[in-house]
Amino acid sequence: MKAVQVTGYGDVDKLQIAEVPIPEPKDNEVLVKVKACAINNTEIWMREGAYGTGSKSGWRPEGVQFPRTPGSDITGQVVKVGAQVDKTMKGKNVVLFPFTSSGEEGSEHISEDMSFIGSEYDGGYAEYVVWPAELCFDMPLSNYIESAVFSVSGMTAWHMVEQIQPKPGETVMVTGANGGVGSLNVQIASKVFGANVVALVGDLALEESMKELGATHVLSYKSETIAQDILDANGGPIDSVLDVVGDALFGTSLHVLKKGGKFCTSGSAGGQKTELDFRTLYLKHITLYGSVLGTRSEFEKMLSAIADGKIQPVIERTFPLEAAREAQTYFKNAGKLGKIVLLPEE
C-alpha cells in the first residue's frame, strides 16, 4: 500500500511517500481502508520534535520510533476483522478513537501508557490502518470527510469545555477561534453548553463565519487595544478562557478574566513559554487547567452531539495523500477556517 512516513525529526522534507505492506489485523483488531485523515498540530509537532525534550518527541518518554506513519483523525471502512472480532463489523464505516490506554474509565487520557495513533502506532496517512475493534465507532455523519475532522481536535475541545463547565449565559473567550480546536470550542461552548462566546481571530473577514458557528462577539487579536476591546464587547470581565495560542495571548487572557475565572489551555501555537506574575493568579483566584485529548465517554458524547447536528464540521480544504508536505505547510498558514483533510483515494 501507499503510505506517507516521517523518517526523522525535522521539516516537511522528512515526510516521504513509501510502498509498505498492508498491515495484518491481530485477533482483537480490524483492518480499515482509510477514506479520509484530517491533519492536526499533533503530527506536525511530533515531526518537528516540539513535544519532547532534547531530540525526542512523542507521547511516550522514549520518543517516536522512525519511520512512522502519522495521522490520527481517521475515517474509513472495515475490510478485514481479527479472529476475536464480531464478523458483522466487516463493511462498517467507522471513526477511530485515537489512542490506547490501560487507564480506568474517565482517566484514560492521563494514563502513563497512553499511546497515540500516528505517534506510537502507524496512523492514517496511508491507504490502510489496523486498530483495536473496540476503539472503532460508527461514523456520526454519512460523509467520510466530514466525519474525519472531529476525533482529536473535537475530543480535545470537548474535554476543555468540560473542564471549565460553563453555565448558560456565562462568557467564554476562545483564542485561535478559526482553527480546528478553536472552531469546535466555539460550537461546543455556545451550542451544547449555552455560553456566550468571544472569539479571537486574526482576520475579521471571518466574523460572519464565526458567528454562524455560535460566537457572540468576534474580535481581532491584532488590535493594539485587544484587552479593552474584549472588556467592552462583554460589558466587563469574562468568566473563562479556552486557549490554544499560549504565550501571545496569555497576559491578555488573565487580564480580562473575572475574579474566580478559569483558564484552560491545550496548545501553544503562539509560544510555548510565558511569564506569569503569580500575584495575578492568586489575587484574582484564577484556576488554571492543562488539557489534551479526553475520555472515551466524552468521545461518545461528542459523536452524539455531531449526529444530532449540534456541532458542524468546519473544513478549509482537502489534499491528496501524496501532497502531505504541501498540506502540512498549508495547515500552518494563518487565516484559514477549520480543518485540512488528506484523501488517500484521490
Sheet of most strands:
7 strands, mixed
CATH architecture of the largest domain: Alpha-Beta Complex
Q: Return the CATH topology of the largest domain.
A: Quinone Oxidoreductase, Chain A, domain 1
CATH superfamily of the largest domain: Medium-chain alcohol dehydrogenases, catalytic domain
Strand portion: 25-35%
Description:
With 346 residues, the chain is α/β, with parallel strands linked by helices. The chain has two domains: 178 residues, Quinone Oxidoreductase, Chain A, domain 1 (Alpha-Beta Complex), CATH 3.90.180; 137 residues, 3-Layer(aba) Sandwich (Rossmann fold), CATH 3.40.50. 26% of the residues lie in helices and 26% in strands. The chain has ten helices and 17 strands. Strands 3, 4, 5, 8, 9, 16 and 17 form a seven-stranded mixed beta sheet that branches. α4 links the parallel β10 and β11. α3 packs across α4 and α6 packs across α7. The chain is globular and about 60 Å long. It starts with a strand and ends with a strand. The mean pLDDT is 94.
Question: What topology emerges from the helices and strands here?
Answer:
Layout: E1 2-6, E2 15-19, E3 29-38, H1 41-48, E4 73-81, E5 93-96, E6 99-100, E7 115-116, E8 128-132, E9 136-138, H2 144-147, H3 151-164, E10 171-174, H4 180-192, E11 196-201, H5 207-213, E12 217-220, H6 226-234, E13 238-243, H7 247-256, E14 257-265, H8 278-283, E15 287-290, H9 296-307, E16 315-320, H10 324-331, E17 339-343
Parallel strand pairs: 10-11, 10-13, 11-12, 13-14, 14-15, 16-17
Antiparallel strand pairs: 1-2, 3-4, 3-8, 3-17, 4-5, 5-9, 6-7
Helix pairs in contact: 3-4, 6-7
